[in-house]
Each structure stands twice: as C-alpha cells, then as structure tokens.
Amino acid sequence: MKELLYNNLRKINFADFALPLRTLRLSAFLLSSIVISAQQSISLEKAIELAKSNNIDLKIADKEIEKQTVLKKAAFQPDPLQVQYQGGQFNSIDYDHNVSVQQFFPLGNITKANRQLQEELVKLAEKRKALSSYEIEKAVTLAYCQYLYGVSIQNLNSELNAIYTKFLKNAELRFKTGESGNIEVISAKAKVKEIETQKVQLEYDLAIYQKQLQFFIQTDENIVPDQNTVLQYAFVENQENTKAEILMTDFYQQQISVYQKEAGTFKALRTPKVGLGYFAQTINTQSLFQGFTAGLQIPLFGGVNTTKAKAAEIGISQSQLALDRNKIILNLQKEELRNNFQKQQKNLDYYQNEGLQYANQIIETAQKSYANGDMSYWSYISFLNQAIDIKKQYAEATHSYNQSAIELQFPTIKNN
C-alpha cells in the first residue's frame, strides 16, 4: 500500500502537449463536469475517520480479534470420549457382550494456561490492528495533502493565465498604436495557449490524486479534500514518547507476553490426565453386570513439550532483541526525518517571509512599467518568468514541507 502511494504521489511539472487545444478543452469540460457533480468535500479528520471505518485491512483485523476471542472457549480441552464394544466368547463358550465408555480430563493448570494464552493472543491481534490503523492514518494524510498540492498548482495556473491574458491585451494595444512589433502579440498568445493546455493536464492529475485518496478511504463516493483547508500541514511534534514508539513497544511487549504464556502452556502439558469410565456386560449371556474404571495418563516421554517450552522462551529473547533493535532504528530515523523537516521548514520560511513578497512586487512593478512603456518586452518577460518561478518554488517548498512533516509525525514502524 505504501509503495503504491509513493509511486503515485509526485510533483507536477509543466510541459508542452501535442493534443489540439479544442480537444483538450472539451476533455477538461467533460472531466470537470463529471467530477464536480458527484464530489463530497470533507476535512482531513473526517477522511481518516472514514478510512478507519471502511478499510478492508482493518475489517480483517477485527475478524482476527473476533476469531481469537472465540477460541478462548476452547481453553478446556478434554480428550475425545472413548466408546468401545466387545463381543465374543471372552467369559465362556457363550457369546457375550461388553460396552465401555471412558473419558480423560486434564489435571493441573492446563485449562488456566490455555485461557491465559488465548487472552494474550486476543491482545496481540488488537496491537496488530493498531499498527495497521497507524499506517492507514499516515497514508490518508499524505494523499489528502497531495490533493491540496494539486489544487495549489491549479490556482497558480489560473493566476498565470490572468497575468498573461492581461499581458496579451497590453501587447495587442501596443501593437495597434505602433509601439511594438507583432512578435509580442504572438508570444503572448502562445503563452496563453500553453497555460490553457496545462490546465487540462492538471485536471487529470487532480483526478488521479482524488482516486489515490479514495483508494485509502475505500469508498465508492468521490471524496475530495475541503479546498478551504490550509495547504501547510499543521505539525506538532511530541518531544516525549511518540505514538510510533508507543505502538511498536506495545506490540513487541505483547508478543513477549504471548511467548511467556505459550511456554507455560507447554509446561502444563507435562502433567498427567485423570480418566473415568463405565462398562456394562453380559456373563454367560446373563445381564446386566456393570462397573466403573479410573486411571491416569502419565506423559512418560514429555521431552517434546519441554523442548517446545524452551523454544517459546527463546522466542521471548528474540522479541526483546527485535524491540531493542527497532527502537534504535526508530530513533535514528526520527533524527534523520527531523533534520530534513528543519531544512524544509527553513526553506518554506524564506518563501513565506520574503520570496512571495518579492514575486508579487516583481509582477506588479513589471506590469506597470511595461504598460507605461518604461520597460522593454524582453525585460518584462524576464522579470515575469522570475516571479512565476518563485511562486512555483513556493508551492513545491510547501509540498516538500508537508511530506517531511507527515513523515516525522508518522515515522515508519518496524514490526518484524
């Protein structure tokens, strides 16, 4: 699931397209008409809630919990009832009959040990579900923010379209008054056509991002993020034990508890079993003669259960070592993610505090200067491209910040 997400959550690059503009416009109109008519806008919190209630993996985890809970009723495990019939000349030359019934029951703490083991298995299934829920929450958050990034690129495209449309009008006016050549008009028209072409491609990209989000929520409804949501992810880091560390520690400690109860169960299997029986028979064809039997099943060769108990104890050590190893991996991962997050944060701070202001000032000043005839066409284009590039970098910086923040909020948990 995670691999699918990372293969598809990619940045948008503007490019030239060979399809006729009329065909692209028609495709975009049909696509947007279908999507808009059936979309349901929801918050990130609601998207996560829906994913946790709809996701099939979590439903499978619920069934595993249910299965282990049902198995608690199998803690008491008596041997199968033995019913035996004997007929023939075992008393005299007469043909007699004998029917016997015998049942063996476990002694000691075996029933209690089985029940305790099953209770720990239920808890282990719950811990596994918690890990799956954590991964789904991370995947939904990434997909949600990816869609918002696509919307921000669309908004930038619309802003560029407005700028170049205005530029085209100015170029046409200057051409009519003889202040400039036709090259400015042709260049402006080409840029407007290019932006309109890109708009269609962005519509398709946004539809892909919507399907990615819908995949994790696992619903037939066309769910989309609330576009009023702030693009920048609201990250709050907990300097104490993170949720990932708590989930991982709980899982391995529960695994250790299972091995402990498993070892206790195998040890309990070394105790004898008591058996009670009843028989009825004929003697010289005369009936009915009855009696009772009692006996013990003594595991003289109990080395198998002893070996299994030792293997379970080794499993305890393995789980503890795995926990220690993955704690080290998690801490190193968090340090790496924290460094990357701080780098992306500083980059974003620049664009928020200075970069965007420069871009807006460049666009405003260049438009006024070009409209007043104080700036050449080539200078105007150069400044405009510089400002546009700053805005594109800001959108990408925000997207990179969001990804690093989500990764730091949800570091990958190793559970093997």
From TrEMBL:
<feature type="coiled-coil region">
    <location>
        <begin position="107"/>
        <end position="137"/>
    </location>
</feature>
<keyword id="KW-0998">Cell outer membrane</keyword>
<keyword id="KW-0812">Transmembrane</keyword>
<keyword id="KW-0472">Membrane</keyword>
<keyword id="KW-0175">Coiled coil</keyword>
<protein>
    <submittedName>
        <fullName>TolC family protein</fullName>
    </submittedName>
</protein>
<feature type="coiled-coil region">
    <location>
        <begin position="327"/>
        <end position="354"/>
    </location>
</feature>
<dbReference type="InterPro" id="IPR051906">
    <property type="entry name" value="TolC-like"/>
</dbReference>
<keyword id="KW-1134">Transmembrane beta strand</keyword>
